[in-house]
Amino acid sequence: MIFQDRIVGLVEAISRSKPRYFTGREILLAQMLATHAAIAFENARLFRRAQVEIEQRVEAEKLIKTSLEEKEVLLKEIHHRVKNNLQIISSMLSLQASGVQSAEGLAIFRDSQSRIRSMALIHEKLYRSDNLAQVDIREYIQGLTTELNYSYRSNHPIEFKLDIDHYFLYSLIRTIKPTTLLETGVFHGHYTACLLKGIHDNYRDSSVDGKLISIDLPAHKSISESTSEAATTHLPSYCEPGWVIPEYLKDRWQLHSGDSRDLLPKVIEREINISLFFHDSLHTYSHMTFEFENAYPILNDGGYLMSHDVHWNRSFRHFARKHKQKEFSIHGFGIFRKAVNKPAS
């Protein structure tokens, strides 16, 4: 029996009645039977080999799955222990703070406790999560807000709701994948956290290395001339601008504290170009125009200029039309894309 020029067996034909020669037809029939038998034997051999390989792969997958489950349990245990250690540190700070007399010293201890709690909360979320690679930023910020309200027992508890504005900002960053963002106005840091989360995920998924530069005048008192939330509310005394931003997002963030009228020109001198400028500071016509005029020259061709609360006045619309740009508005955000200059032919 021959299969693909390879002998796989032997068929012997014997006449037991009396010696005789086989006819050509009988020989052809025997050859056909031998050929089919050779194919059947080869198929059986291949089937058995496939069975063995499948069994080996199933066994290997079981070992890999068991190993991954063990590593997952180990990682969760690490996150759990880190969280416990951070809680011990927080408790030690609380004991130390009980003996502090000055209000300034007590504020320092509370600030340190808040930072430690924010880190501990990340490890707790990872410990309880089915996905060890990332944290749900909505749950994290809401949990952090609850922790701070409980810790400081403020008469004006902080509330946070993740709405369509936050999804819009995150989706925008994930779509256009900017490398350098310049933002004015941070306040609690809800919008800033969305921008940083988009930058973080862009690097994780697409290796796009981005950074966010923010300028903010800490609003520890209400700003009477403001046309937005800062006119009636202010940062709690125990919080700094961007206090809700998770620690793991801050490695791509630069914060400059002060008035953008003073700091924006200085920051622009150090930055060659930016991919996106986002205004969310003082929403007066003159201030918005000042920021647009300063940021626009260093905006990349094809870069984006965006502003929040564009409905407060016509500064954004007037600026876009002055530079012959088509602006779009959505949920109080205004945005346009700087035209790409075509090289002269």
Notes on the protein architecture:
This protein is an alpha/beta fold and 345 residues long. Among the domains are: 2-65; 163-337, Rossmann fold, CATH 3.40.50.150. The protein has eight helices and nine strands. The protein has helices spanning 24-97, 103-128, 137-152, 164-176, 190-206, 260-270, 285-295, 315-322, and strands at 2-3, 6-7, 180-184, 211-216, 253-257, 274-279, 299-308, 328-330, 333-337. The strands form two sheets. It has a seven-stranded mixed sheet with strand order 5-4-3-6-7-9-8, with helices on both faces. Helix 1 (24-97) packs antiparallel against helix 2. The longest helix has 74 residues, at 24-97. It is elongated, with a radius of gyration of 35 Å. The termini are far apart. 28% of the residues are buried. The model has no long low-confidence stretch (mean pLDDT 81).
Tell me briefly what this model is.
The protein is α/β, with parallel strands linked by helices. 51% of the residues lie in helices and 13% in strands.
Strand line-up of the largest beta sheet: 5-4-3-6-7-9-8
User: What is the percent of helical residues?
Assistant: 40-55%
Q: Could you name the CATH homologous superfamily of the domain at 163-337?
A: Vaccinia Virus protein VP39
CATH architecture of the domain at 163-337: 3-Layer(aba) Sandwich
Chain-averaged pLDDT: 81
CA(first)-CA(last) distance: 76 Å
CATH top level assignment of the domain at 163-337: Alpha Beta
Radius of gyration: 35 Å
Count of alpha/pi helices: 8
Query: Which band does the percent of strand residues land in?
Result: 5-15%
Extended strand count: 9
Low-confidence stretches: none
CATH topology of the domain at 163-337: Rossmann fold
- The coarse overall form would be elongated
Order of helices and strands: EEHHHHEHEEHEHEHEE
Q: How can the largest sheet be summarized?
A: 7 strands, mixed
